[in-house]
C-alpha cells in the first residue's frame, strides 16, 4: 500500500492509499481529489492533472520526460520547478508518504 497526501485546490489535505500499478492521477481520481480533472485519461496530452511535488520528494518522483516537459511548458503560467503531471508518476513503494499540491488551473 502506498500512502499519498494531496492538498487540493481549496487547500484541504487528504491522505489516501492505493496499491497495484496505479498512476498518481488514477489514485487521485479514485479518491475524488478536487482539481484533478484528467481530461485525457492519462495520455499526457492535457495537463489537467498538474501537481506540485513536495520538494523533499522530487528526487524520488523523477524528472519529466520530453513529452511531459512539453506539456508542462504549455502551462508554464501555473507550472513550477517541482511540477509534474500526476498521470506520469507511477506509484511505487519508494513513494510511500508522498505529498503533492494540486495546481490551480
UniProtKB/TrEMBL annotation:
Its cofactor is [2Fe-2S] cluster. Residues 1-105 form the 2Fe-2S ferredoxin-type domain. The keyword Metal-binding applies. The lineage of its organism: Bacteria, Pseudomonadati, Pseudomonadota, Alphaproteobacteria, Sphingomonadales. The keyword Iron applies. Belongs to the adrenodoxin/putidaredoxin family. It comes from Sphingobium yanoikuyae ATCC 51230. This is 2Fe-2S ferredoxin-type domain-containing protein. It comes from the Bacteria. Keywords: 2Fe-2S, Iron, Iron-sulfur, Metal-binding. GO terms for molecular function: 2 iron, 2 sulfur cluster binding; electron transfer activity; metal ion binding. InterPro entries: 2Fe-2S_ferredoxin-like_sf, 2Fe-2S_ferredoxin-type, Adrenodoxin-like, Beta-grasp_dom_sf.
Amino acid at each position: 500500500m502506498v500512502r499519498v497526501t494531496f492538498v487540493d485546490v481549496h487547500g484541504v489535505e487528504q491522505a489516501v492509499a492505493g496499491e497495484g500499478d496505479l498512476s498518481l492521477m488514477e489514485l487521485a481520481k479514485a479518491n475524488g481529489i478536487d482539481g484533478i480533472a484528467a481530461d485525457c485519461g492519462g495520455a499526457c496530452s492535457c495537463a489537467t492533472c498538474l501537481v506540485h511535488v513536495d520538494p523533499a520528494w522530487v528526487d524520488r518522483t523523477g524528472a519529466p520526460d520530453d513529452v511531459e516537459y512539453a506539456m508542462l511548458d504549455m502551462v508554464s503560467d501555473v507550472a513550477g520547478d517541482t511540477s509534474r503531471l500526476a498521470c506520469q508518476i507511477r506509484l511505487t513503494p519508494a513513494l510511500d508518504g508522498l505529498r503533492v499540491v494540486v495546481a490551480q488551473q
